[in-house]
Known about the structure:
Blueprint: H1 2-27, E1 32-38, E2 40-56, E3 60-63, E4 68-70, E5 80-81, E6 87-93, H2 101-148, H3 153-189, E7 211-214, E8 219-224, E9 230-232, E10 237-242, H4 244-247, E11 248-255, H5 256-259, E12 267-271, E13 279-294, E14 300-310, E15 325-342, E16 347-349, E17 352-359, E18 362-373, E19 377-382, E20 389-392, E21 404-406
Helix pairs in contact: 2-3
Amino acid sequence: MARKKLSRSVLIAIAACLVCAALVFAFWPRATMVDLGHVSRGEMRLTVDEQGKTRVRDAYVISTPIDGRLLRVQVQPGDPVQQGVTVVAQMLPANPAALDIRTRGQALAAVEAAEAALHVAEANLEAARADADLAQSDLDRTSRLAGSGIASPAALERAQSAARAAQAQLATAAAAIEQQNAQVRSARAVLIGFNDPDFYDDENDHTDQARIIHAPISGVVLQVIHQDETTLSVGSPILVIGDVEQDLEVVVELISSDAINVHTGDPVEIVNWGGEGALTGKVIRVEPYGETKVSALGVEEQRVTAVIHLSSPPQDRIGLGHGFAVEAQIVVWSAEDALRVPSSALFREGPDWAVFVANDGTAQMRRVTIGFDNGQEAEVKEGLAEGDQIVLYPPADLTGGTAITQRVVE
């Protein structure tokens, strides 16, 4: 009996020890699982990323030189054109406006009045010619008498003066004829219609042909505004021509706070443009004028336009044309050998930046001085050294001295 009681006591003691050990293990502080990263050295840059679009720097808008009828445009968008050779449009003169009954009646009356005035001028011309003939005959007779000593010198002078006056009257009457002829033509011109032969100038027998418009530059047709035959007033746009290979540039609208850091000459990478690889360029102008634009979320923003010249050769951007959407990454700062820490390791400790450094299985908080931060990496000025192991995405309850272990992803 004594031996059975001893065995039962031993079993109870062992069970109690196991329970205590389990409770100690259950409530013993465990190491916090975290993701770890390293402080490294290498190239780092800070960019301003923004959506933009391409445009031809010098796009030529071909407009109508006269009021007239535009014939159907034969060129299509994308067609190559050669300066001074390729015919891009043809125009015919416009049909004169039709006259209403009252205006036509007035025009007919004006023609009749002009023709009557012409008849008067012709009669005056005949009278002046008769006076001139009479004065000339009188002069001839007076000259013969003066030569014989019968007529006085004064009579000869009067005859000469009368002859000259008669010739002047004759010249005046002839000029009046020309004037009245012009008045008749002017009055008749009001009645001219498009199909009237007199619509065209007699001195130029080619005015009934189409007015030819040639390409002002060599390039491609970017847009045809009026393709079909139509009547247009002078100055109306017909089509747009530009040189996509040599004059293509990128325009981006930057938030004004980002535009402050962008300067002329900053290098640019063009990505997500639809082709392979990234294109290169540089900022050539940041406009000094900002405009209020509404974002897709309905928020008003101040935007500033920056213009980027494409440095990549045309063969590297085949297919990229006018008005295409691209994404520009403008490099506003870069360093070849910067001390870098992942941005996800940084957190605020009062007014300072801080990180948790892994040291012998424990987390040690350390304040650091940060320079540029591009959202993925931050430049370290002070507080860390190359190779330091730091905690990424530190939990809110992590404190200095806490045991940590690296999380393993299976």
